[in-house]
Design goal:
Largest sheet of chain A: 6 strands, mixed
Structural class of chain B: mainly alpha
CATH topology of the largest domain in chain A: D-Maltodextrin-Binding Protein, domain 2
Number of helices of chain A: 19
Mean pLDDT of chain B: 87
Helix content of chain B: over 70%
Low-confidence stretches of chain B: none
Helix content of chain A: 40-55%
Shape of chain B: globular
Number of domains of chain B: 1
Structural class of chain A: alpha+beta
Radius of gyration of chain A: 23 Å
Radius of gyration of chain B: 23 Å
Number of helices of chain B: 13
Number of domains of chain A: 2
Number of strands of chain A: 15
CATH architecture of chain B: Orthogonal Bundle
CATH architecture of the largest domain in chain A: 3-Layer(aba) Sandwich
CATH class of chain B: Mainly Alpha
Number of strands of chain B: 0
CATH superfamily of chain B: MetI-like
Largest interface: A-B, 43 and 32 residues
CATH class of the largest domain in chain A: Alpha Beta
Oligomer: heterodimer
CATH topology of chain B: MetI-like fold
Chain lengths: ~425, ~270
């Protein structure tokens, strides 16, 4: 009797662990790159999933900015207690693969329905989720830079308020009309503002190169193309903006750019769609959004964070994690997240939901970013991303600071990058 | 005549240095009490507002974070004062084989930034199950090479005759330490406590990495949700949050200002 009880108990346990009744306690690390209320939105979404799946629990852990979240996740993984799911930079895929801490999602999501689900994401966002044929990440909080412009400033300068500049030449030409000086010759309103300092600048510069027909990095994470004519041309354009007097000389910081725009210090700015909410909340003038002005055609980088599932957890936990990710990226939830933050909803079906249609009607600027995706390329990324990106940042900063010409600065960056990446070849 | 000129020159220098030093704080006050659009736009009659503080207070459980920070700072301070005193006393007054080598090992720790040890420390904590606890945050900081060094140097300056006199009176070692050395090192203790409290109060990366729950997170980690990068920085909120989190330290310093300054001069930390 006793023995048979044991067997029954054992069998039940086995059934439990393979069936849907399996209970997983998930840890989910997330960074927030946008304003604080977004944390509440994420917590609400997580709670709703747990209500639907009462056998599971999820602990949503706010882990700082992107870099801090990655550090925290890597540290925990090295100590044998990785998070189950994390939202980390799309560009960090090479680092995560190199450290062998993430599981390919395409290995888990292999049914036909799953494949269809993965195919539903915008191609522009999947480019940096794939490595050596395997999908390692699922797009979640993705963004792309766009040109924000002050319609009132355009009107005053005698420009059409519905046609922002599309090319670099137009940007300079319109920028000259938009630049206003006071009686003493001090500029009170610049034509435009492109961040030229730090990582944000490298991101936007990558988009300039794409619009000029080049691409700074490649799918294998090893080859970078920093000293091509396309790349040099793009950097020369950045320098020229200041030389022609349409943009302030010297370095321009990323963080202060939206503020300069809402205060009217600049008639236009190049920055992330992550600022849509900030600008619409704070600007007391009519504003519009356009594609990033391009060299040979439109072009932009994608950026932001993807979902990753970690290795070193049980298969059941991986299955529950996948389920969780599907929930978070479902049409309704992606819509909530996109509206709360300004990130671009990563799937076409999200844009078909009634709330999203309503949002697009009240904030048509959001559609511009989605439509620009067609011309978007991957963000600069490689193995040893931190180090290699710093060479790129140095090159951009040295050029706008006038310490070196774009061609020299980029040639130096290429040489340094190759030295680091050679061992990965 | 000459001394008046000197005084004026010194005062001018002091005032201008103080202004440069105080500017970030003044700016912080400005931004925190005005609406976002005035944060880089200095209109003298811009309307004052307390809304930033309300927003910030509502966005995070600040009272919880404050309590955590205070607990963790006090644990570290208490254990530092006790452990560093004992170790420093041993190095200052006892001669034992290997003392020089041991002391140099302790000194070497001053050269290592704590951030390098994060992965290793995390591993240790994970093994003993102290991840995500307040005690876990404090563990790597319970003793301090800097504190030991500072106290040892102070104890060495205590005239040995005082020590001997106390012993002649029949005081045992504990008594001597407690009644002779500790009172004489009071300025050093106060100065060290100030440095330690402000370091622990501001520590960020390590608490962020070893904690997962709001229940154990200190104020710096709680505060970081306002330091957003991607969408531009909302200076009004950031400054309101910063003022809130530093307020207890600033108030404490203002109360004890005279003693702190006097003690710093005496302890030779400048």
């Amino acid at each position: 009797m006793k023995k048979s009880n044991k067997i029954i108990a054992g069998l039940t346990a086995m059934l439990m662990s393979t069936g849907s009744a399996f209970a997983a306690d998930l840890e989910f690390y997330f960074p927030v790159g946008v304003n604080a209320p977004a944390v509440q939105t994420i917590t609400d979404l997580v709670d709703a999933w747990v209500v639907q799946n009462p056998q599971h629990t999820v602990k949503a852990i706010y882990a700082g900015n992107y870099d801090e979240t990655t550090t925290k996740a890597l540290t925990a993984a090295k100590a044998g207690s990785p998070p189950h799911v994390a939202v980390l930079l799309a560009a960090d895929i090479f680092t995560l693969v190199e450290e062998e801490v993430v599981t390919p999602i395409s290995d888990l999501a292999n049914s036909d329905a799953d494949k269809e689900w993965l195919d539903g994401f915008y191609k522009g966002f999947m480019k940096d989720a794939i490595f050596e044929g395997k999908t390692y990440a699922v797009p979640f909080q993705r963004s792309t830079p766009v040109l924000y412009y002050n319609k009132e400033a355009f009107k005053k300068a005698g420009l059409d308020i519905n046609t922002p500049p599309k090319t670099w030449e137009e940007m300079i030409e319109m920028g000259k009309k938009l630049t206003i000086k006071d009686d003493n010759g001090n500029v009170t309103q610049w034509g435009t503002r492109v961040p030229t300092l730090g990582g944000g600048a490298a991101w936007i510069y990558g988009g300039l190169v794409i619009s000029n027909g080049g691409l700074l990095s490649s799918d294998n994470g090893v080859d970078v193309h920093l000293d091509t004519p396309e790349a040099i041309g793009a950097l020369e354009f950045l320098v020229e903006l200041a030389e022609q007097g349409v943009m302030a000389k010297g370095g321009i910081s990323w963080g202060d750019t939206p503020k300069a725009f809402i205060e009217g210090n600049t008639a236009s700015m190049w920055t992330s769609t992550g600022n849509l909410k900030f600008v619409s909340d704070n600007a007391d003038f009519d504003w519009g959004v356009g594609f990033m002005p391009g060299g040979k055609g439109p072009g932009a980088p994608v950026g932001g964070g993807n979902f990753y599932i970690f290795d070193g957890i049980t298969d059941e936990e991986k299955a529950a994690s996948l389920d969780f990710i599907k929930y978070m990226t479902s049409a309704e939830n992606a819509a909530k997240w996109s509206i709360a933050t300004g990130y671009i909803a990563p799937r076409a079906d999200t844009w078909e939901t009634p709330v999203m249609k309503e949002y697009a009607a009240t904030l048509p600027q959001a559609l511009v970013a989605r439509d620009q995706l067609e011309y978007a390329g991957r963000e600069f990324a490689s193995f040893q991303r931190g180090k290699v990106t710093s060479f790129l940042i140095d090159a951009v900063e040295a050029s706008v600071g006038g310490q070196s010409t774009p061609a020299e600065a980029l040639a130096k960056a290429q040489k340094l990058a190759d030295a680091v990446l050679n061992e990965y070849k | 005549m000459k001394s008046t000129i000197n005084r004026i020159a010194y005062s001018t220098l002091a005032i201008s240095l103080a202004t440069v030093w105080g500017f970030p704080f003044i700016y912080s006050l400005w931004a925190a009490f005005h609406e976002e659009k005035y944060s880089a736009n200095f209109t003298w009659n811009a309307p004052l507002t307390l809304e930033n503080f309300a927003t910030v207070w509502a966005a995070a459980p600040f009272s919880l974070y404050f309590t955590n920070t205070v607990i963790l700072t006090l644990i570290i301070l208490a254990s530092n004062l006790i452990l560093c005193t004992l170790v420093a006393y041993a190095f200052a007054r006892y001669k034992f084989p290997g003392a020089g080598l041991l002391f140099s090992f302790i000194m070497v720790q001053l050269l290592i930034t704590p951030d390098i040890l994060i992965v290793e420390n995390y591993n240790t904590l994970a093994k003993i199950g102290l991840i995500d606890t307040i005690f876990g945050i404090t563990l790597p900081y319970l003793t301090s090479a800097f504190g030991i060094f500072l106290l040892r140097q102070t104890f060495k300056t205590v005239p040995i005759s005082l020590d001997e006199a106390a012993q002649v009176e029949g005081a045992n070692t504990w008594r001597v330490l407690w009644d002779v050395y500790v009172p004489l090192a009071k300025p050093t203790y106060l100065a060290y406590a100030l440095v330690s409290i402000s370091f622990q109060w501001n520590n960020f990366l390590w608490p962020l990495i070893v904690t997962n729950s709001p229940e154990v997170r200190p104020i710096t980690v709680g505060l970081s949700i306002f330091a957003t990068v991607e969408s531009g920085v909302e200076w009004a909120l950031v400054n309101a949050a910063t003022l809130l989190s530093t307020a207890p330290l600033v108030i404490l310093f203002l109360i004890f200002q005279r003693r702190f300054v006097a003690n710093f001069m005496r302890a030779g930390i400048k």
